[in-house]
Structures are given as C-alpha cells and as structure tokens.
Amino acid sequence: MITLSLIGIGTGNVDHVTLAAVRALNEADVILLPRKGEAKSDLLDLRRVLCEELLDKAASTRIVEFDLPTRDGERPYLNAVDEWHDAIASVWAELMDKHLPNGGRVGMLVWGDPSLYDSSLRIAKRLTDSGRAVEVNVIPGITSLQVLTAEHRIPLNALAGAVHITTGRRLRERGWPEDAATVAVMLDSGGAFTAIKQEGVYIWWGAYLGMEKQCLIEGRLHEVSAQIIERRTMLREAYGWIMDCYLMAREPLL
C-alpha cells in the first residue's frame, strides 16, 4: 500500500506552512518535487528550501525530483488537460514503483491548497481508479486568495454577500458572472478583466503572493487596469513566470 499525501504548502512562504503539513513532510519516505522547466525553476527552488527548513535533520526522507510532462497547447483545452493528467499520473506511478516497490509514504508539495484550482486530486484519482493500492491523504494549505485579502487588509466577501470564484478564461468568454457582486479570478493568462465593463468595479490584484517579490495594486478598475497589465508584463519578463490572482467587487467590502 502506498500512502500519498497531497500537502498544501501555501504560497511558498515557510511561515504559511501548517504544523500538519510539517508533520506530513517528516512522515514521508519519499517527497516528489516536479521540475517545470527553466522558466519556473524558482518554484522548484522554493520547494527545496521548504524541505530544507522543515524536514528534521535526522529524518530519512528522500527527495526525488522529476520532469513534469507538458500540456499540448495546440489541442482543445479540456482534451489537452485530460491527456496531460494521464501523463502525469503515469509518471507518478513509475516513481512510486521505482522508489517504494514494497509500499510506503509519498509526499507531494502542492501550492496553496489541493482543493482550489489544482490538479493533484484528479491525478491521484487516476491512480486509485487504475486499481493501484494507493490511499490519498489531503493536508490543507493557505490559498492565494487568503493571502491576497490579508495583504490588502480586506474581507473576501461583502457583508452577507456571496463570492464567485472563476478563471481568467471563463471571465473572458462569459463576462461578469450573473448576479455576482464579488468575483475572485485565478489562472488568468493576463488582463481578462479588460473583457468586462470596468466602470463601477474595484480591483485588488496581487502577484507572487507571500514571496519576497510580492506585488500589490488596488483601485478603480478603469483607473488601474493598464497599470496592472504593464506591471504584470514587466514582472513576467523579469522572472520568466508569474502567479497572480485578483478580487473584484461592485459593492463595498468594508
């Protein structure tokens, strides 16, 4: 039996990692760290730093790095993602067979929380659906939305209001969600908010949340929209990658 722990590590800040996550890391026989290419080597470096700082020096935990398969950008999005997840599941299975042939505990470090716009749970399900003896544990982590609201010192929702969480792709395709007063947007390739009517909307934007290079912008959307796009472009060119998200509201949050 393999025990696979999907460990939410927040946004890369060691102070945001929970005690439960630290315990799960130290109980693992093997921790798998994905390499996502040179442009995102910072993400691997952060995972390494977290392991160095959080693993007990006497622990026998082994760190195994692997190359993450890439998604075919030419295929229809959902089909490409489905095939990509299949490929990742195959790599995970091979690594488990190689490094834990007699069973044991595997740890995977997941940015934010495994439940929010992350593929780890769906990939893990492929292992269990294939008949493999894998038990999946989830250790929750701090999400980028939590860090975003904390850094901007705002609540996530208006008083007694609901929050609609969506992606940049869906915001571009469908516009502002019907009946939504507050909208949180993740996985935006850049500037999806330009697809909506900007007057009367306030935005709180953040990139590299929880990291040393964190960047925040807030204001009336029609006034700061161009500034966010310009800053985002500059940051991506400087670091080779970017993680950002934002919250927009038509009603006061405070």
Automatic annotation (TrEMBL):
Keyword DNA repair attributed: no
A Pfam cross-reference name: TP_methylase
Keyword Transferase: yes
Pathway per the UniProt entry: Cofactor biosynthesis; adenosylcobalamin biosynthesis
Highest taxon listed in the record's lineage: Bacteria
GO molecular-function terms, A-Z: precorrin-6A synthase (deacetylating) activity
InterPro entries from the UniProt entry: 4pyrrol_Mease, 4pyrrol_Methylase_sf, 4pyrrole_Mease_sub1, 4pyrrole_Mease_sub2, CobF
Tetrapyrrole methylase domain boundaries: 3-224
Gene Ontology terms describing biological process: cobalamin biosynthetic process; methylation
Keywords of this entry: Cobalamin biosynthesis, Methyltransferase, S-adenosyl-L-methionine, Transferase
NCBIfam families: CobF (TIGR02434)
Descriptive protein name: Precorrin-6A synthase (Deacetylating)
Organism of derivation: Vreelandella songnenensis
